Amino acid sequence: MNPYTYQLYSSVSQLPADWNALAVDNVFLSTSYLEVLEKSAPLNMTCHFIGLFENDALIGVALSQFLNVNELESFGDRDRCLKTSLRNFVFRNFGSHVLFIGNNMLTGQNACAFSKGCNIPKALKTLQSAAEALQADFKSKGKKVHILTFKDFDAHEISLFDPDDFKAFYQFSTQPNMVFSVNSNWKTEQDYIDALTKKYRDQYKRARKKADGIEKRKMHLEDILAHETTIYDLYFHVAKNAPFNTFFLAKNHFSTFKSIFQDKFLFYGYFINEKMIGFNTMIKNGKSLDTYFLGYDESMQREKMLYLNMLYDMIAYGIKKEFEEIIFSRTALEIKSSVGAKPIKTYGFMKHENNILNRYMSKIFPYLEPEMIWQQRNPFQ
User: Fold this and answer.
1) Distance, CA of 203 to CA of 279 (rounded, Å)
2) Distant-in-sequence, close-in-space partners of 83: CB < 8 Å, separation ≥ 6
3) Which of 100, 142, 296, 297 is most deeply packed, by most CB within 10 A?
């Protein structure tokens, strides 16, 4: 007998007053972040917030995101080949409506949080029931959910899912989350540089020399608003040239984030002769520093090694502010490993609404999640 029930919400204003007490360890489940989504989610995304209850007591909070990828003109323009075309065909025709329990805009377990003493397997079963209710609601509005997925759980977390409750689901593993652990003995960026082997110290010096002439600025809300069009153009250039995309940010996303999060959301612009050539963003999340979206001018990126310099800047900030780790997420795996980030494997469950297709999810999945061949580096050995 499952003692838990659920409640679905479509607005932050509807959430229980004690919601943040459960989201205290993850800013991406807080009402502040959910407000960012409510005001500036991608246009092809619909978010719901899920409360889990034991009687009248809130014992769990969760996020769901419904994506209609048919609303996108492109899934990414970088790779043009037969396999990519086949993947896009499969996605548009058999997986274009996806319901995530979790956050498709981030990497890591940002799906749910539970109270201490909660029976987590039963709470996850209740979360599955809530997801099924959302599927029925979307279907009643003419939007059939093709794929239901629970995403980005680590090895311990995925073991808490009851196999009997999720036996109809396909368990998968995606590209790893790249996480940089900050050595507790490092007090300055120089300590990090000293820890690098000669090869990677030379890489650092070469990148920093290339960055001569670039001015880095910490940008406030008024600065972000003043450069909003340029910021979006720089972001969109990077996003559309990624190997795969299921959404594009709203143009007001960064300014909305800054207005709500203030000093917890960091925005740095990179300029040459007053012209903005790139930016990066970070979010303070307890003892973790989460890197977020960035953008750059491709010609400047090549000439100035801009992306690599951004990674070094984020590491320097994480050391200076004494964060324990920097979450670099799952893109550009090799270059992130070259600065010291290590891969953390993540897992998920997915189920197709078509029973026949669901039986073949192990064969279909490689087309939905393109495999990335890369070589891991270790700059400290």
Assistant:
1) 21
2) none
3) 100
| Spatial CA neighbour of 321 closest among 365, 274, 266, 358 | 266
3-state secondary structure 294-331: EEECHHHHHHHCHHHHHHHHHHHHHHHCCCCEEEEECC
Rounded Cα–Cα distance for residues 53 and 15 (Å) = 13
pTM of structure:
0.93
Domains delineated in the chain: 4-175+345-368 (3.40.630.30), 178-342 (3.40.630.30)
pLDDT tens per residue, range 202-223: 999 999 999 999 999 999 999 9
Distance CA 131, CA 148 (A): 8
Structure tokens at 247: 């959404």
C-alpha–C-alpha distance, residues 136 and 144, integer Å: 8
Cβ atoms of 206 and 305 closer than 8 Å: yes
Q: Which of 32-36, 167-171, 328-332 has the lowest mean pLDDT?
A: 328-332
